[in-house]
Specification:
The chain is an alpha+beta fold. Strand 5 and strand 6 form a beta hairpin. Helix 11 runs parallel beside helix 13. The chain is globular, with a radius of gyration of 22 Å.
């Protein structure tokens, strides 16, 4: 899971500070590392390190990164991959010149491709999918970089969006299922590629359109063109991306995340009523659904948990110990609002159960009479191999326990999940979503990763 951004400035303005604010807006997509690469008259300069964007980039670094084409990246990784060498953008030199790549997704044939390359003498510096893709592009690049990228992506399987920078162009690529998001914006005469539209709002750009599944967009000489890399498959936009990962002020493939989550909350109230005095949310990803639940149920919504805004997401912390520490310092109960009340708490998901268990304990310690948990999505039963990096099946609480058993495990007075039908109805009844983590049905089957 990553956030990526790319900018091509026709007016040759220095873009590193604009990209920095864009990465700031995408910080929710990755908290382990951040990086920016820029093209300065044919020379690629870059800086990347572990940490949040504001920790990685000082004013001095941003002033050094001068150029009119650039790409940026924020990354979530598992524990073993959290190293500086795995931070992106990946900058490589090869026979035809230099490339910088930023990537979001997961290749199901990564090991097969990597082992084949290693058998042929290719040396790898990192453990990331991006380096495999860079090697494929270098292998195929004879005269035309665009044809090299098309050939490279035809060799890879899985979920991916790529933003690639050469010495004269910016290129964006989206997988044929549209599993991962990528959109196009414009700031004056400058073109921008971003994982989410919220980055456009932050830097004052206007949304143009989404990159289509199986499409490559090429920006050169201030103009943009579209090239087909693969035939588009049936759309399979990641549904977990919409219920949890994306910012509520973003739009993905024309869908308002805010309106979708609020409608899911309304459907949740219809399917899972509860006798309560107050509706609260598990901030922040459960807040919009909680508002919808309160509107539909007629039970007042209010704050019950105050979030420390300087703590990141606990689900995407790479170790269990860090997740538990994150919960302890992330949330505090507003005792005045919950004491003596029957509390309905709405969240978007229960993955491992760690966070919700501690929240319920905190609410009851603060005097809540009852705590009823309502989840605005179905149980997460299957691990994702397409870039969401949900944990292994044995760590998913819903994979081995019934709803009643989960209720007992987390200490709730009642527990109810929104049905898959109710969630899809909130999303517009369109069959354009990957529901693999709920149903086990993935558009691309796992091979070796």
């Amino acid at each position: 899971m990553s956030g990526i951004i790319g900018i091509y400035s026709k007016d040759h303005r220095d873009i590193s500070k604009i990209m920095y604010y864009g990465l700031y807006a995408l910080q929710h997509r990755g908290q382990e590392s951040a990086g920016i690469a820029v093209n300065n008259n044919g020379y690629i300069d870059y800086y990347k390190d572990l940490g949040l964007a504001y920790e990685v980039f000082s004013k001095e670094v941003l002033n050094r990164l001068r150029g009119n084409i650039g790409i940026g990246h924020v990354r979530y990784s598992n524990e073993s991959e959290t190293t500086t060498i795995n931070a992106e953008p990946l900058v490589v030199g090869y026979k035809q010149g230099a490339l910088a790549l930023a990537y979001d997704g997961s290749l199901v044939n990564f090991l097969e491709l990597r082992e084949d390359m290693q058998d042929k003498g290719v040396i790898f510096q990192s453990s990331i999918d991006t380096e495999v893709i860079a090697n494929l592009i270098a292998r195929y690049h004879k005269d035309d970089i665009e044809q090299a990228i098309i050939k490279a992506v035809r060799d890879i399987k899985g979920s991916y969006v790529l933003v690639i920078m050469t010495n004269d162009r910016l290129i964006g690529v989206r997988d044929p299922y549209g599993l991962k998001p990528l959109c196009i914006g414009k700031l004056g005469n400058d073109y921008i590629l971003s994982s989410e539209t919220c980055a456009f709002d932050t830097i004052g750009a206007k949304f143009v359109r989404d990159v289509e599944p199986g499409e490559m967009v090429v920006i050169i000489d201030g103009e943009i063109k579209s090239v087909r890399t693969k035939e588009a498959e049936a759309k399979n936009i990641c549904l977990f991306e919409i219920i949890y990962f994306a910012r509520p002020d973003s739009k993905l493939d024309g869908k308002s995340i805010y309106l979708l989550r609020r409608e899911a909350g309304r459907n949740l109230a219809k399917e899972c009523p509860a006798d309560g005095d107050i509706v609260i949310s598990a901030p922040d990803s459960g807040t919009v659904a909680a508002i919808g639940y309160a509107e539909e149920s007629g039970i007042p919504y209010d704050e019950g948990l105050i979030k420390n805004r300087y703590v990141g997401r606990t689900f995407i912390q790479p170790t269990q110990e860090l997740r538990e520490q994150g919960v302890r310092i992330k949330l505090n109960v507003l005792k005045e609002n919950v004491e003596g009340k029957r509390v309905i708490i709405v969240d978007d998901s229960i993955v491992r159960g760690t966070t919700m268990t501690r929240i319920i304990e905190m609410l009851k310690n603060a005097g809540a009479k009852e705590v009823h948990v309502r989840i605005s999505a179905p149980p997460v039963k299957y691990p994702c191999h397409l870039g969401m990096h949900t944990p292994k099946k044995e760590s998913l609480v819903a994979a081995s326990k019934t709803v009643e058993e989960i209720k007992e495990t987390i200490g709730a007075d009642s527990l109810c999940y929104l049905s898959l039908e109710g969630l899809l109805e909130a999303a517009g009844r369109e069959e354009i979503y990957c529901t693999g983590c709920f149903s086990g049905n993935y558009p691309v089957e796992k091979e070796n990763k």
